[in-house]
Amino acid sequence: MSLTHAGLSGRLSSLLGGLRARLGGADAAGSGSLPVRDYVNVSAASPSRVMGFDQPLVWVTIALLLAGLIMVYSATIALPDSPRFANYTPHHFFSRHLLSIVMAVSVAAVVTQVPMATWERVAPWLFIASLVLLILVLIPHVGKVVYGARRWLPLGVMNFQPSELAKLAIVLYASDYMVRKMDVKERFFRAVAPMAVAVGVVGLLLLAEPDMGAFMVIATIAMSILFLGGVNGRMFFLITAVLLGAFALMVTLSPWRRERIFAYLDPWSEKNALGKAYQLTHSLIAFGRGEVFGEGLGSSLEKLHYLPEAHTDFLLAVIGEELGFVGVAIVILAFFWMVVRLFNIGRQAIALDRVFSGLVAQGVAVWMGGQGFINMGVNLGVLPTKGLTLPLMSFGGSAILLNCVALAICLRVDIENRQLMRGGRA
């Protein structure tokens, strides 16, 4: 009886040993084999982890880029009929936008190869570089003026907008700052005040262009990263109150901003409909014409020189007119899914004790979600008119480039998360 029991035990041990060898062979040369249950959990509960990167995030990003390309082409094909664009071909904006997307995707592919440790080291220097460019764009004959705003640096291939780089720089700098100040995050003057000064300097430079919309996005990003990093709740609400007070003061002291607010509150009055609320009223007309399923791709009337900047700030209105409520809802759902996914990537990184990477991913989520919300709100008449583009979709070379770079950094965060969860190194 004892011999039979010993024989069965030996066979069972050999079978378990073979199973371990099969399951653990792939990692035998790496960091050592894990328990059998860990391999079963990884393969059964989370099958997506065997992939090297987040494929759904990549496909949603590509879908938004391609949808933006199609809608930019639809919104600009008739622009050469206007005297202002008489020297342009019908395909000019389409070609420029396509070139921007190709450049952005190419740069993003390279960025995914850069370790997060490198971004953490260069974060302060990138922030300083963005400040230098924000100063440079204000110099006469250096910065390009469009509609009275000096926001662009002409680079030949594209007009580069330093405020777009500042958004990425503040994400990286604020995340690195919170990691360095983690031990004093409960103390206002040591944790919050220096960051407030940095955001204030950026704000002064942006308001000098002027570009209040970009300042709002950057302030929101910085505040969100401070909050997600664990800053005391009372300090957070105090800073929020100060910022809201500052924005209210800027509107009160600026006659043209004040007029824009009044026009937003009563857009259909004769004075406002032909003045400050002209874009808003025609945007609402576009949505009204689109109804549920839209007038059909290419069939917008508002883009025929009625709705100014239809290919940049008001691209969503063209989508609403041509593709209707269904098209707008799909765009909103795509952005919502992307923001949730980026927050999940960030939360996963923090759970793996990679606080900088986690805050970066969540900061980019706030950037994409916040700017997208403001643009959509402006198009739908929920918010006062503000010159902010729809991320990944509106026409604009530097915006597309920095949006793709930011998402590529988040993809790198996800790649390193997966490497760590498989027992490797980030």
TrEMBL record:
Residue ranges of the TM segments: 57-78, 98-116, 122-142, 188-206, 212-229, 236-256, 323-343, 355-374, 394-415
First and last residue of the signal peptide: none
Gene Ontology cellular component terms for the protein in this record: cell division site; plasma membrane
Reaction(s) the record says it catalyses: [GlcNAc-(1->4)-Mur2Ac(oyl-L-Ala-gamma-D-Glu-L-Lys-D-Ala-D-Ala)](n)-di-trans,octa-cis-undecaprenyl diphosphate + beta-D-GlcNAc-(1->4)-Mur2Ac(oyl-L-Ala-gamma-D-Glu-L-Lys-D-Ala-D-Ala)-di-trans,octa-cis-undecaprenyl diphosphate = [GlcNAc-(1->4)-Mur2Ac(oyl-L-Ala-gamma-D-Glu-L-Lys-D-Ala-D-Ala)](n+1)-di-trans,octa-cis-undecaprenyl diphosphate + di-trans,octa-cis-undecaprenyl diphosphate + H(+)
Gene Ontology BP annotations: cell wall organization; FtsZ-dependent cytokinesis; peptidoglycan biosynthetic process; regulation of cell shape
Major enzyme class: transferase
EC number, UniProt record: 2.4.99.28
Membrane topology: Multi-pass membrane protein
Pfam families according to UniProt: FTSW_RODA_SPOVE
Record's subcellular location: Cell inner membrane; Cell membrane
Database matches in NCBIfam families: ftsW
PANTHER family in the record: CELL CYCLE PROTEIN, PEPTIDOGLYCAN GLYCOSYLTRANSFERASE FTSW-RELATED
Function: Peptidoglycan polymerase that is essential for cell division.
Alphabetical list of HAMAP family matching this protein: PGT_FtsW_proteobact
Protein's UniProt name: Probable peptidoglycan glycosyltransferase FtsW
Species for this entry: Aquabacterium olei
